[in-house]
């Protein structure tokens, strides 16, 4: 089985697993129990991990809050900001049409509770432009949320442009960077976001742990996710999952060391795969922006071949996806490709490949051969 579903989740790095096991054995004490030495050691370890994770995005550790992952982080930010401004008058948010479902669905929730939400359209490459966003801004606009990279197509959004615009206009800016962090370098110093969401399992860390970078935590203070003993600045009560935090810190450390080399290698592999597949299947269609995109992600459509048929044929050979992992059990068309203006046939023929550190050129060659075999079988 060749695993080509890294955007859904990455395999945990062996050094991450070892660090977590060591933590479970030697740092099992509650970090909040600072009345004894074992608890103090755990507390120190938690602080060290927070610094390591913050350094991945060139942030201060005082601006990192731990959550269970990007979906929770996104919910904390949007609902928290809505609650903060709700009593002050009309509240308007802007998000793109191709955000992850955890953003789209909670915006529907917020709309039912009186928040006005505008959905910025994207172009045929799946990219939202700053001009499209500017057209939706009004005096009540409090927050703009645009993902850094799309999970289905890999298209990169102009988040620096948007962040600079928001800073100038005194509008809060949030970005879901779950697919971006770990694949491309990111620095808070270059992109002045107010909030950033991320998940460890997208960069070879454990599942169930992620975080928020926040510029001003007081904007979330009116609506703590969990009322408890004051952990995580009083915004998320409950005993911290220290082994998971340790795992995320180790994953962040490795990612920072090799993100540039991984980027170069994956870009080369991606370009080679696309070039050869185009030669094999001239009428193949690639969905999204091939130039302004993640180095590991390819979304394609084979004309006349439904993605579910193809994936069923290859389910014991290739791990693939036809879109977001969160929606893989649903039959509805991708809201991302629909927003890009594609017809039903192309959408229902779309396949997402996403590869990673452990993927080899030989594995991609094998995947290409499988695609070609099915294409030739259907088009005899």
Write the SSE topology.
Elements: E1 2-3, H1 14-26, H2 37-55, E2 64-67, H3 70-86, E3 92-96, H4 101-112, E4 116-120, H5 130-134, E5 141-145, H6 159-169, E6 172-176, E7 195-199, E8 210-214, H7 242-280, E9 285-286, E10 297-301, H8 307-314, E11 318-319, H9 335-339, H10 344-348, E12 350-354, H11 361-378
Parallel strand pairs: 1-11, 3-4, 3-5, 5-6, 6-7
Antiparallel strand pairs: 2-8, 7-8, 9-10, 10-12
Description:
InterPro entries: Aminotrans_V_dom, Aminotrans_V_PyrdxlP_BS, Cysteine_dSase, PyrdxlP-dep_Trfase, PyrdxlP-dep_Trfase_major, PyrdxlP-dep_Trfase_small. Residues 2-365 form the Aminotransferase class V domain. Its EC number is 2.8.1.7. Its cofactor is pyridoxal 5'-phosphate. Belongs to the class-V pyridoxal-phosphate-dependent aminotransferase family. NifS/IscS subfamily. The protein has 380 residues and is α/β, with parallel strands linked by helices. It folds into two domains: 2-8 and 258-371, Aspartate Aminotransferase, domain 1; 14-254, Type I PLP-dependent aspartate aminotransferase-like (Major domain) (Aspartate Aminotransferase, domain 2, 3-Layer(aba) Sandwich), CATH 3.40.640. It contains eleven helices and twelve strands. It has helices at 14-26, 37-55, 70-86, 101-112, 130-134, 159-169, 242-280, 307-314, 335-339, 344-348, 361-378; strands at 2-3, 64-67, 92-96, 116-120, 141-145, 172-176, 195-199, 210-214, 285-286, 297-301, 318-319, 350-354. Strands 2-8-7-6-5-3-4 form a seven-stranded mixed beta sheet, with helices on both faces. The radius of gyration is 21 Å and the shape is globular. The two termini are 27 Å apart. The model has no long low-confidence stretch (mean pLDDT 95).
């Amino acid at each position: 089985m060749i695993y080509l579903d890294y955007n859904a989740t990455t395999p945990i790095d062996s050094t991450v697993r070892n660090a977590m096991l060591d933590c479970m054995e030697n740092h099992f004490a509650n970090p909040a129990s600072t009345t004894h030495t074992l608890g103090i050691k755990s507390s120190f370890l938690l602080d060290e991990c927070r610094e390591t994770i913050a350094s991945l995005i060139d942030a201060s550790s005082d601006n990192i809050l731990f959550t269970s992952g990007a979906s929770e982080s996104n919910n904390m930010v949007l609902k928290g900001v809505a609650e903060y401004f709700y009593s002050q008058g009309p509240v308007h948010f802007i998000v793109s049409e191709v955000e992850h479902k955890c953003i789209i669905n909670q915006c529907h929730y917020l709309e039912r509770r009186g928040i006005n939400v505008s959905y910025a359209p994207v172009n045929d490459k799946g990219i939202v432009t700053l001009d499209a966003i500017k057209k939706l801004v009004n005096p009540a606009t409090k927050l703009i949320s645009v993902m850094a990279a799309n999970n289905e197509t890999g298209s990169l959004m102009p988040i620096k442009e948007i962040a600079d615009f928001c800073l100038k206009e005194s509008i809060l800016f949030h970005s879901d960077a779950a697919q971006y962090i770990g694949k491309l370098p990111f620095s808070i110093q270059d992109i002045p976001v107010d909030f950033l969401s991320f998940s460890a399992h997208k960069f070879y860390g454990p599942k169930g742990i992620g975080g928020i970078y926040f510029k001003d935590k007081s904007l979330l203070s009116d609506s703590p996710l969990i009322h408890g003993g004051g952990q995580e600045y009083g915004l998320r009560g409950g005993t911290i999952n220290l082994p998971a935090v340790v795992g995320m810190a180790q994953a962040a450390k490795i990612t920072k060391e090799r993100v540039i080399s991984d980027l170069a290698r994956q870009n080369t592999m991606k370009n080679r795969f696309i070039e050869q597949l185009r030669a094999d299947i001239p009428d193949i269609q690639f969905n999204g922006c091939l130039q302004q995109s993640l180095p590991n992600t390819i979304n394609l459509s084979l004309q006349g071949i439904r993605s579910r048929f193809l994936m069923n044929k290859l389910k014991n050979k290739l791990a693939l996806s036809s879109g977001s992992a969160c929606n893989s059990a649903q039959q509805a068309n991708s809201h991302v490709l629909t927003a890009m203006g594609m017809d039903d046939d192309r959408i229902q023929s779309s396949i997402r490949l996403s590869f990673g550190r452990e993927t080899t050129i030989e594995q991609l060659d094998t995947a290409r051969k499988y695609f070609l075999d099915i294409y030739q079988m259907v088009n005899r």
